[in-house]
Write a structure and sequence with these properties.
Layout (H helix, E strand, L loop, with lengths): L9 E6 L5 H10 L3 E4 L1 H9 L5 E2 H5 L14 H8 L5 H9 L7 E5 L3 H6 L4 H6 L4 H11 L5 E3 L5 H10 L4 H29 L18 E6 L9 E5 L11 E4 L5 H14 L6 E6 L2 E7 L3 H11 L1 H4 L2 E5 L5 H7 L4 E6 L4 H7 L6 E4 L11 E6 L2 E6 L11 E2 L7 H14 L7 E4 L4 E5 L5 H18 L11 E4 L6 H9 L4 E4 L6 H11 L2 E4 L8
Parallel strand pairs: 1-2, 1-4, 2-3, 4-5, 11-12, 12-13, 19-20, 20-21
Antiparallel strand pairs: 6-7, 8-13, 9-10, 9-11, 14-15, 16-21, 17-18, 17-19
Amino acid sequence: MSETLLPIRRALISVSDKTGLLELARNLSAHGVEILSTGGSAKTLLDVGISVTEVSDYTGFPEILDGRVKTLVPQIHGGILGRRDVPEHCAQMKEHNIKPIDLVVVNLYPFEETVASGAEAETCIENIDIGGPALIRASAKNYSHVVILTDPIQYNSLTEALDQGGTTLEMRKHWAGIAYAHTAAYDSNIATWFAQQRSDQLTKQTFGENFVLVGKKYHDLRYGENSHQQAAFYRDSTQRLGVATATQIQGKILSYNNINDTDAAFELVAEFDKPAVVIVKHANPCGVAIGKTLAQAWDEALKCDPVSAFGGIVAFNRKLDVKTAEKISTLFLEVVVAPDVDEEARSLLAHKKNLRVLVTGGLPDVSVGGTVVRSVAGGFLVQTRDNGSIMREELRVVTQRAPSSHEIEDLLFAFRVAKHVKSNAVVYAKNQATVGIGAGQMSRVDSARIAAIKSGQAARAAGQETPLTQGSVVASDAFFPFADGLETVIAAGATAVIQPGGSIRDDEVIAAADAAGVAMVFTGMRHFRH
């Protein structure tokens, strides 16, 4: 037995985004649907000759309070919420001359876009929709009898259904679910904006009692970290420049791991003002360098770990030029991301059809906060973004020998890289380039050893006998709990060390540095990254 189709006899249209509105209204008229509409939507339809009854004429009640009240009247909400299968509802609707409304087409005031434009608070407040969410929620609640559309992308499906005689219950239920998600996201953006308006003097609490995470699906992914896991990519409302807002100009669709790694690379490269290159593999940098040009920075970054760079992700903080593009095109890479790519470089990279190339239009402001969310069983953790940084004047020299000016520059560079390396993190650097990176080890000593070992391998691959770490400086993302970690980096050739300090054995570690003539500075700030 075929499912009963619900015909549409009367529709209410009230939309801020008028994309596809005219075609939808013409199709409704062609199917004999009576159209009710408000203000701007009604004018748009009347101007092209489509028959429309304005809501104020339909209800006998004018729009008031500068348009704040338009549809919040019994004739509208009664027509939406009335159940056609309940005799008492039908009797009351007849008694009060309330006609059924079978279709509601609503999209909301552009609150998110208004906030993003930098508008004043009063303008943002006036772009908080009241009547729209009420219409959407009422329609979705009564999906057994009412169709609710909140996105122009749904209009074609409705038109096809009208051609078949009406909508099915399953279609209406599906759209109702989308509608409630739409209003939930809308309210969440408003709640987030209000939270951001709070004065620090009024509250020191960054996170409220309820935390709502909202995103709009960008697209489904083939799979997650592994092929048996499902995944999708969502964008949030922050508009932070990066992988989520980038334009992909070539290559296959990004995978879950591509997105994660690209984000890690681009966030790190944005830390630097001078031309910089970051190469990432499995969410950890395997080569980072600053240069006079991007081409020079690429050469130095690649030297750190050329083996791991194969199949990696590369981020630039300048427009990618053709000279640099020629260099990177000799190596198999998964993703290249940059603020821009010049025309010659685009033409050259186009020959590598599988290479994903992303253009972001700019760099994220790494000094700006934000939130980081991580799921755990039964809940999730929320924290502010690690936007901490250390300036030269904030360093505290704790050894007999103070680092030279050149060493300080390298120390600050290495510590900034360590901020983006999974803990335990130990980063060797020389001349504004990494020469060894130890990441994600359970022991800080092992991170120091692994970085030195890989540095030696890179040196031998380049035909050098001296390890790259000889004469380098070292950054540790957290304090050395014992002197053995420090002794390991000294044995590898380090001459200066930057670390947060704060261990109960700091004196022992400082004494080991003094005994070796190594300079050491404390930051008082750690950069755990798990």
